Amino acid sequence: MATIIGGIGTSHVPTIGLTYDKGRTQEPAWAPLFNGYQPVADWLAEQQADVLLFFYNDHANSLFFDFYPTFAIGVSPSFELADEGAGTRPLPPIKGHTDLAIHVAESLVNDDFDMAVFQDRPLDHGCHSPLPLLWPHRPDWPGAVLPIQVNVLQHPLPSAARCFRLGQAVRRAVQAYPEDLKVVVVGTGGLSHQIHGERTGFNNEPWDHQFMDWLADDPQRLTTLTHADYIRLGGAEGAEVIMWLAMRGALSPQVRRLHQNYYLATTTGMAVVLYEDQGPEAHP
């Protein structure tokens, strides 16, 4: 059967992709961030993961506010990269895994998650900004991406607890898939930041570290926080860390934190964490 071997939490700041594409990753202002991804890339190469299952959000590049689903899953055999106004990134199309995606979609609906299903929609920086930092892409990606889009833009948003339960349901779906696949679950977004209003430029570094500690050791505590709590502590856009909770829900109750890197140099607290799954059991 398919197995979830680990989880990754990562920022998806668009300037990460821009800096990578321009070959500026070792400039002094950026090296602490990009060097922090190398242990994660090394672990993925060592484990030879087959699928990265991404919880991400679309920033109104493929999904728009006239019809913006709470949860949506992509089932295409491949995905183009969205042009977000500056041309498409110099990366190959992203491979999909149609059979696994269809299986997960059916399982989630049977598990009472009313999923929207999409094909032929490009993936935006919520997914592809960190992707080449995790996987090599020349001449092609080494595996497939299964994208699950979460609404963190247009209210009403799914609660933190709902996102955690989505991750639990994804775990059940993956473990019921009959093909032997190594799956790594990725949650993107955050950490603390706000890009509009009176608190533009807001960051909360102590909260970012507290969030990552609770995520590893006491994720249920994070499910009790409201959107207002997340916005107060991490800024309006910082509330998107509920996608990290979906990732954590897809992992075993006890995880081994293999790596963590945090860097605050722009308007966003940027981080990457790597967890190793510790067994077949699920969260109660």
Topology:
Elements: E1 3-10, H1 14-21, H2 31-35, H3 38-47, E2 51-56, E3 71-74, E4 78-79, E5 94-95, H4 98-110, E6 116-118, H5 125-128, H6 131-134, E7 144-150, H7 160-175, E8 182-188, H8 205-217, H9 219-223, H10 227-234, H11 242-249, E9 255-264, E10 269-277
Parallel strand pairs: 1-8, 2-7, 2-8, 3-6
Antiparallel strand pairs: 1-10, 3-7, 4-5, 9-10
Helix pairs in contact: 4-7, 7-11
EC number: 1.13.11.57
Protein name: Gallate dioxygenase
Organism: Curvibacter cyanobacteriorum
Structure, described:
The chain is α/β, with parallel strands linked by helices and 284 residues long. The chain has a single domain (3-277), classed as Protocatechuate 4,5-dioxygenase, Chain B (3-Layer(aba) Sandwich), CATH 3.40.830. The protein has 11 helices and 10 strands. It has helices at residues 14-21, 31-35, 38-47, 98-110, 125-128, 131-134, 160-175, 205-217, 219-223, 227-234, 242-249, and strands spanning 3-10, 51-56, 71-74, 78-79, 94-95, 116-118, 144-150, 182-188, 255-264, 269-277. It has an 8-stranded mixed β-sheet with strand order 6-3-7-2-8-1-10-9, sandwiched between helices.
Number of strands: 10
Just name the CATH architecture: 3-Layer(aba) Sandwich
CATH class, please? Alpha Beta
Q: How many whole angstroms does the radius of gyration measure?
A: 17 Å
Outline type: globular
Overall average pLDDT: 93
Assembly annotation: single chain
Poorly predicted segments: none
Strand order of the largest sheet: 6-3-7-2-8-1-10-9
CATH-defined fold name: Protocatechuate 4,5-dioxygenase, Chain B
Report how far apart the termini are: 21 Å
Q: Could you give a short account of the major beta sheet?
A: 8 strands, mixed
The total tally of domains equals 1
The number of helices is 11
Kindly report the name of the CATH homologous superfamily: LigB-like
Structural class: alpha/beta
